[in-house]
Design brief:
The protein has about 450 residues and is an alpha+beta fold. It has six helices and 24 strands. Strands 1, 2, 3, 4, 5, 6, 7, 8, 9 and 10 form a ten-stranded antiparallel sheet that branches. Strands 11, 12, 13, 21, 22, 23 and 24 form a seven-stranded mixed sheet that branches. A seven-stranded mixed sheet has the order 14-15-16-17-19-18-20, with no helix packed on it. Helix 6 links the parallel strand 16 and strand 17. This is Discoidin domain-containing protein.
Length: about 450
């Protein structure tokens, strides 16, 4: 019995004797000739070209989007030798699914589930396979409604990973227009240590390569871009050789290490980034992408009345429906630095303006928090904070777990992959091995 469906789903496979296949083909042809045959109305393919994500990829040539591109020779492939793994597609605001067709490569799943979800967090099972043998699995008679569909592999059929040429989802979609203005941003803080790719322990070349493989619309950094004193010579020797490859697409903010430059606070940072970091003549600025307004702040100078007044004026002028702010020092953190009260007055301004998302660095770990207000009280209209300080600097341990902290990872270098639409946002923390270490919920903008 396969639960959570009005009738047991049916799975067909292409591993049939040739004679039987020929008979079925003949019968199928006769049925097609009958105009009032049972089930004559064909299911509609609703997944092709839709945004896709996965738990991991073997390498950048086998991304999850390849399973939904309508090309039979391209494929998604997960990392090898690891269970479980999954691939997920965003079908739009809501869809009713009646059929899912999977075409496996040689690296198939012996056991997997087909699941659907309204929010990408809570999943309902549509079908279960416990004795898969690869080839084509065609699940029909399904009944499920949601925005996201995933194939969740629990046992590999080979020593490799999971690989699908095709995932086809059939059914009907909501008449509500799908989210528009979708784009991806890569974010990280605490990046370039004084080391190069010649050292196997040097992490920032690996996070830079990962960031490039994701190929976002742009990159943003949450401070401490260059260690230890952020001299111009160090920026040129270390940061520029890795993250500098996409410098023109980067929107940085400074951290406390940028202020340690013996040539003067922020001298190397300002010389290296120039107008990229000072587009409005100050180390704080704002810009728009789609229906999002981004506010880049200098948390070293939150006592600067000019910056605070600029922030209030900027938010008052904003006409976008979603707002993200980013700066170095987190108000809340379970890491070695812990909570930083210097950010609380700014949080109060952001909260009053219904800002959705705050990104920080400073503590060298990954952490996400449930929506909360400036006083740390959980509330649905609160700000979601993410600490993303694993861009390359030495990791910090988790020390005191803060209220509303939902997930913490230390010791695994990686970047944030933010997926944004005109009305929603979600993200993944992706490690330098291309595996997804954590996936955030999907939130609707305030």
């Amino acid at each position: 019995m396969r639960p959570f469906a009005s009738a047991p789903p049916r799975r067909t496979t292409d591993r049939l004797p040739l004679v039987l296949a020929a008979v079925l083909l003949l019968v199928g042809g006769l049925l097609l000739a009958l105009p009032d045959r049972a089930g004559a109305a064909a299911d509609t393919l609703i997944s092709q070209g839709r945004p896709a994500t996965s738990s991991s990829v073997e390498d950048s040539t086998f991304g999850p989007e390849k399973a939904f591109d309508g090309i039979s020779t391209t494929r998604w492939a997960s990392a090898e030798g690891v269970d479980p793994q999954w691939i997920k597609v965003d079908l739009g605001p809501s869809a009713t699914v009646s059929r899912v067709k999977l075409v496996w490569e040689a690296a198939y799943a012996k056991a997997y589930r087909v699941e659907i979800s309204a929010d990408g967090t809570t999943w309902t099972r549509l079908a279960t396979e416990t004795a898969g043998n690869g080839g084509t699995d065609d699940w029909t008679g399904l009944t499920g409604t949601g925005r996201y569909l995933r194939v969740y592999g629990t046992a590999r059929g080979t020593s490799y990973g999971y690989s699908l040429y095709t995932v086809e989802v059939y059914g009907t979609t909501s008449t509500t227009p799908p989210p528009t203005g979708s784009f991806t941003v890569v974010a990280a803080g605490d990046i370039a240590a004084q080391c190069t790719a010649s050292s196997s322990s040097c992490a920032h070349p690996k996070t830079a390569a990962l960031a490039q493989r994701i190929a976002p619309s742009f990159y943003l950094t949450m401070g401490d871009n260059q260690y230890d004193d952020a001299r111009l010579s160090d920026f040129r020797t270390y940061y520029d050789k890795t993250w500098g490859a996409f410098k023109a697409q980067t929107r940085p903010v400074p951290g406390n290490h940028e202020s340690y430059d013996p040539a003067g606070a922020f001298a190397g940072y300002k010389s290296y980034f120039g107008a990229i970091a000072y587009p409005q003549g100050k180390p704080y600025y704002s810009y728009d992408q789609g229906n999002w307004h981004f506010v880049a702040l200098d948390s070293n100078t939150f006592d600067d009345a000019a910056q605070i007044q600029w922030l209030k004026d900027d938010l008052a002028r904003n006409t976008k429906g979603c707002v993200a702010a980013y700066f170095h020092h987190p108000l809340y953190s379970s890491g070695g630095h812990g909570n930083d009260p210097v950010s609380k007055p700014v949080w109060q301004i952001l909260y009053g303006a219904k800002v959705d998302l705050v990104l920080n660095g400073h503590d060298h770990h990954y952490e996400r928090f449930a929506p909360q207000d400036p006083n740390g009280r959980a509330t649905a209209d609160g700000i979601v904070e993410i600490v993303g300080g694993m861009g390359g600097a030495e990791p910090y341990d988790i020390e005191t777990v803060q209220p509303n902290s939902q997930k913490r990872i230390s010791g695994t270098y990686g970047v944030l992959k933010l997926d944004l639409t005109d009305t929603t946002y979600t993200w993944q923390y992706v490690g330098t091995d291309d595996q997804v270490k954590d996936s955030g919920p999907t939130y609707t903008c305030h």
